[in-house]
Amino acid sequence: MQLETLLANIAQHSNLVDAYGATHLPIYNTATFDQKRQFPNNKNYDYSRTDNPTRNALEDIFALAENGAGCVCTNTGVSALALLFDTVLKSGDTILVERDCYGGTYRLLNILLEKYEVKTCYADFTDLSEVEIALQQNEVKLILCESPTNPSLKIVDLKSVAELSKKHNTLFAVDNSMATFASQKPLDLGADFSLFSATKFISGHGSVVAGAIVAKTEHWSERLNYFSNAHGRAQSPFDVFLVSLGLPTLVYRMKTQEQSAIQLSEFLNTLSDVIDVKFPGLPSHPQYELAKSQMKIIPSVLTITLKSAEKAEQLIQNTKLFGEKVSFGTSDSRLEIPSKMSHATYSEEDLKKIGLTHATVRISVGLENIYDLIADIQQALKVETSKCV
């Protein structure tokens, strides 16, 4: 079954049993369940923290979409990451992480070091020799990376990293928030876990915060469920419902946004105020060929560097269609300066290590008309129309 077909009718393709034959995911917004009134020979429910029919249905769909053994839906994307750490790591363990990681991941890793003495080694995952050296020099329990990375948009060769993880008997997890399962499937490439924020492209409307983690094996699926129940990380039924509303259009939204991002990137490359444009969908990107082979759709996120921090602020303040907002993957376009928002917890030294400056702007391209977006940037930077393509 193709992904578009799976996502078009999640009530039908999940294991949900509904007495009234609801054509969309019904909301079982209850804390407890009456044991005497449930269907015989079906899954037995008692408490929504442990299991809930609405949440279980979405978990079934996510597991199928990622080709995994099982899934846990969590209340945020960071909660999915924390659940991974709860399940896999113990005090004194070492984790190997791509240096260019999400600011929330970086913050959580610092907490793990402070509270549990979990050591983090950072490496550039586009340099496989650097990854292997880190694995040889440290007893690594878990490898974690994003691809594309956020916000520098590096593309990691997931299959090669997975091979290294097997060689060194290490678990491998991929944060698939930006690409999503509509574009790439980390478990098929050898990862043990695929986790993601459903706040972004998957729900698509900016109306809910949510996360999920999918395990490749039954063993790790059972462990994730156990720790999720123990720590109370489960997503509420109503939030599950909000996420589900975006699924039927996911593939189509991402394809449309990809084309707009290509056009916007090409336009930005013509501006004298912009000194660098990073977008994996452009042939100028250093991992363009890998991006095209590893992903079906290039996510509509790009990162630009302007001539100065003042020019970056000018762009932020003068645009009318782009909100100054964190996150990405929604129907509305948005931009941010990572050093003061999503990556504000990074020190100046750490920002330099991943190539971020105060003149770096991350842009998430939404579903607006591309010519309106181009015109908005033109007026924000006071660009003469005759100079634009």
The termini sit apart by 41 Å
Largest sheet: 7 strands, mixed
| Average predicted confidence as pLDDT | 94
What order do the SSEs take from the amino end to the carboxyl end, as H and E?
A: HHHEHEHEHEHEEEHHHEHEHEEHEH
CATH topology of the largest domain: Aspartate Aminotransferase, domain 2
Number of domains: 2
Radius of gyration: 21 Å
Query: What is the topology, as strand order, of the major beta sheet?
Result: 1-7-6-5-4-2-3
Structural class: alpha/beta
Number of alpha- plus pi-helical segments? 14
Describe this structure in words.
The protein is of the alpha/beta class. It folds into two domains: 3-245, 3-Layer(aba) Sandwich (Aspartate Aminotransferase, domain 2), CATH 3.40.640; 250-387, Aspartate Aminotransferase, domain 1 (Alpha-Beta Complex), CATH 3.90.1150. It has 14 helices and twelve strands. It has helices spanning 3-8, 10-13, 53-66, 77-88, 103-116, 128-137, 158-167, 218-231, 237-244, 250-268, 288-294, 309-318, 348-353, 370-380, and strands at 70-74, 94-98, 119-123, 140-146, 171-175, 193-197, 211-215, 274-278, 301-306, 323-324, 334-336, 360-364. It has a seven-stranded mixed sheet with strand order 1-7-6-5-4-2-3, sandwiched between helices. α5 (103-116) links the parallel β2 (94-98) and β3 (119-123). α6 (128-137) packs parallel to α7. The model has no long low-confidence stretch (mean pLDDT 94).
